[in-house]
Specification:
single chain, 397 residues, alpha/beta, Rossmann fold, 15 helices, 8 strands, 51% helix, globular
Length: 397
């Protein structure tokens, strides 16, 4: 404990099967009003989850407007559209229902709605938000991003560049963890989002801003994911496993809220800008390429991560244990079925220079600099080449 720190969780967390059915009362309690804007996406609507929430709201007499123009890697335009609905409806509460994209749009639109400026006015926090006047409730349908407990959002400019917005006021007022809502996910999204949470936990634990509280949150998240990911993939309706993964994602979200992420997210966000690669898949590919390199600079840290991943340490040196953790992470990526090769995404060696340029951009600097080992431009080029030329694929497409 060589350095001081503060840890101030601000989001109320409610966990339980069918806890979502109380959301009408939550809106009244949090905002004092009977109006809400529900921000979600077409996929969530198609599997019937939005209807469950809307009926729960109607039961409590809540007047609801639905905004569903949300896509993966949401745009500034989508945030502005949602903010205008919040303003015109004079709503004092917003619900984010979905994965990280829907929750990010809900979180930022709630703040944008409190002023006259568009979302791009706040990109990379060139300008501060007006004080928060719209309350926010997050109801994640994936066990991945941890956006239900973080004060940041990621969105894309018109030029498809991924940028950030952040503010203390962006922290949701309530996060509802509903295990049933994640059972509708196809295996690809279960794998990609859960691996995103795993990368969050690993990078927060190993990062330069880590402390005892971050370590505690991260290691428990890693344990829960290691113990339950394969169960959820094998038996998608296992509510015990789904609940533990949902809780793990929130723990990992709390960890990165205070500890940040590292090089896998720097590279992963660059992949998102370069080729619109799904975020969970992108950061998994990135950590797979950099894990061994990270171990070389932080053996003790990665040995502890290996223990949390369930690696048996009998007969292994600390270095061997840390490297075995790398192998276990790679195994989880393999059994998840995620495709590691980017060939079918039309990315190749010709993109190396541009790829590195994006890694070194202003928006990705905080993640690169927070990593347990600082990468040179040459090393970033090495990672770019490995990622763009690999022919490995997952078990399924």
């Amino acid at each position: 404990m060589s350095h001081s720190f503060e840890f101030i969780p601000q989001t109320r967390i409610a966990f339980g099967i069918d806890r979502s059915l109380m959301i009408g009362s939550d809106v009244k309690d949090i905002s004092g009003e009977n109006k809400v804007v529900l921000v979600t996406d077409p996929g969530v609507i198609n599997v019937g989850l939005a209807e469950i929430v809307i009926k729960a709201l109607e039961k409590e007499g809540i007047d609801t407007r639905v905004f569903s123009n949300v896509q993966s890697d949401p745009t500034a335009a989508s945030i502005d559209e949602a903010a205008e609905i919040i303003r015109s409806f004079d709503a004092k509460c917003v619900i984010g229902l979905g994965g990280g994209s829907s929750m990010d749009v809900a979180k930022m639109a709630a703040l944008v709605a409190g002023d006259r400026h568009p979302a791009m006015h706040y990109a990379l926090m060139k300008n501060p938000f007006a004080p928060k006047i719209v309350k926010t409730i997050m109801l994640p349908t994936t066990s991945g991003t941890g956006a239900e407990v973080t004060s940041t959002v990621v969105f894309s400019t018109d030029e498809k560049r991924k940028v950030w917005g952040w503010a203390a006021d962006m922290l949701p007022d309530l996060a509802i963890l509903e295990p049933r809502f994640t059972t509708a996910l196809p295996n690809f999204l279960t794998a990609a989002t859960t691996l995103d949470a795993l990368v969050h936990a690993i990078e927060a634990y190993a990062g330069k801003r880590s402390n005892l509280l971050i370590e505690t949150l991260s290691l428990q998240a890693i344990r829960l994911i290691a113990q339950n990911l394969e169960i959820a993939l094998r038996t998608p309706d296992d509510l015990e496993a789904r609940g533990k993964l949902a809780f793990a994602a929130t723990l990992a979200g709390m960890a990165i809220e205070h500890g940040g992420t590292g090089i896998a997210h720097c590279i992963g966000h660059a992949l998102g800008t370069l080729g619109r690669i799904h975020h969970g898949r992108a950061v998994s590919i990135a950590l797979k390429a950099t894990y061994h390199w990270n171990v070389e600079a932080a053996i003790e840290i990665h040995a502890e991560i290996a223990r949390a991943l369930g690696v048996k340490e009998e007969g292994l040196t600390e270095t061997e244990l840390a490297l075995a953790g790398c192998n276990e992470f790679n195994r989880l990526v393999e059994i998840s079925g995620l495709t590691v090769s980017l060939k079918e995404d039309h990315l190749s060696e010709t993109e190396i220079e541009r790829f590195v340029e994006i890694m070194l951009s202003e928006e990705n600097a905080p993640m690169r600099l927070n990593n347990c080992r600082l990468a040179t431009k040459e090393e970033l080029g090495m990672f770019a080449k490995e990622i763009l030329t690999t022919s490995e694929v997952g078990v399924t497409k």
